[in-house]
Amino acid sequence: MKEYFAFQWHITDECDQRCKHCYIFSEDNCKKLDAMTWQQIQDTFYNCLDFCEIYGRLPYFYITGGDPILHPDFWRLLGLMKEHNIPFTILGNPFHLNDEVCKQLKEYGCQKYQLSLDGMRETHDWFRKPGSFDCTLEKIACIKRAGIRSVIMTTVSGTNIKEIPAIIDTVVEAGVDVFAFARYCPTSEEKDTGMTPQEYRELLDTCYKKFQAYEAAGCSTYFNKKDHLWTLYEYEKGIFKIPEDAQDGFIYGGCNCGNCHMTILPTGDIYACRRVQNSKVGNVFEDRIADIWVCQMETYRDYTKFEKCAKCELLAWCRGCPAVASGKDGNFYAADPQCWKEV
């Protein structure tokens, strides 16, 4: 059975917000807003399909921006997806959604629509813009009425870590289908997430107990343990056990960078991971993705280089978040700043 390969495809930088933790605007608030032309979109699409055909993968697209719905050819792209019967998720803002738009998204084959909540009302609106919190909660209902799975993603940092339990209660009350959180990846302007390893472990412990309680009560929200440090937490709790038939040298899980994921920006630049600021490996307008995969991307698959993880029995399943690690000094293989395990 073929496995899926995920393309996080940023078709435009255009956006209604200027979020304080945004990768696009973190370096220069006056930067030129890039967007692909319709010809570039088509070329990129078929380059991705070519890669999947060569390596026997099934394409899955995460279409994003900026806010992708602001691209003038957004609906033409969805038509291309539908024509080839390719599943996709939209990562966008809530502001241009309504029942009619969500119905159209569903007709084109949208499986999930991901929104962000980065704190309760005051904190979230400070990160993003006034009114964004209430608008996000309101549009969850539009997404669900259309039959699309609603996803809420939270970026965790020292600024909002104490609000995560309240966010969980909020998304459950709103009937969100999937909830997950990931850590803030520092940019060149900031070098720290603002959380100690112990503080982050305590957050995981608090969230785990909440997840368990909600699941026991029959809650329909799926809690996606996206951060790979969940593996370490569950290993210590005896929930995750290393399989007896595990083979040395095999990678069974953990970070997908260089494995089954890549990011394409509006400029055509290809990144091993968007969250890894210095991980550019090529340009989709100039390079064949299939060639990049066996050459430049190999840099991110040398698992023996992980300075801490290579000494850990969980190397094949965890590896924390190299993007957070590389945010400090550009070293992809450095120790995860929030990993509390001593090796």
Protein described:
Helix 6 (164-174) runs parallel beside helix 7. A 10-stranded mixed β-sheet has the order 7-6-5-4-3-2-1-8-9-10. The model has no long low-confidence stretch (mean pLDDT 93). The protein is an alpha/beta fold. The radius of gyration is 20 Å and the shape is globular. The protein has helices at residues 38-55, 74-83, 99-108, 121-127, 132-145, 164-174, 197-216, 229-236, 289-294, 322-329, and strands spanning 3-10, 57-64, 88-91, 110-116, 149-156, 178-183, 222-223, 261-264, 269-271, 280-283.
Query: What general outline do the C-alpha atoms trace?
Result: globular
The main sheet orders its strands as 7-6-5-4-3-2-1-8-9-10
Helix content, binned percent: 25-40%
Strand content: 15-25%
By DSSP, the count of extended strands is: 10
Give the count of helical stretches: 10
Taking the alpha carbons of the first and last residues, their distance comes to 37 Å
What profile does the largest beta sheet have? Answer: 10 strands, mixed
SSE series: EHEHEHEHHEHEHEHEEEHH
What integer is the average pLDDT?
A: 93
Question: Could you name the ranges where pLDDT drops below 50 across 5 or more consecutive residues?
Answer: none
Over all CA atoms, what is the radius of gyration?
20 Å
List keywords for this structure.
single chain; alpha/beta; 10 helices
Structure at a glance:
Its cofactor is [4Fe-4S] cluster. This protein has helices at 38-55, 74-83, 99-108, 121-127, 132-145, 164-174, 197-216, 229-236, 289-294, 322-329; strands spanning 3-10, 57-64, 88-91, 110-116, 149-156, 178-183, 222-223, 261-264, 269-271, 280-283. By secondary structure, it is α/β, with parallel strands linked by helices.
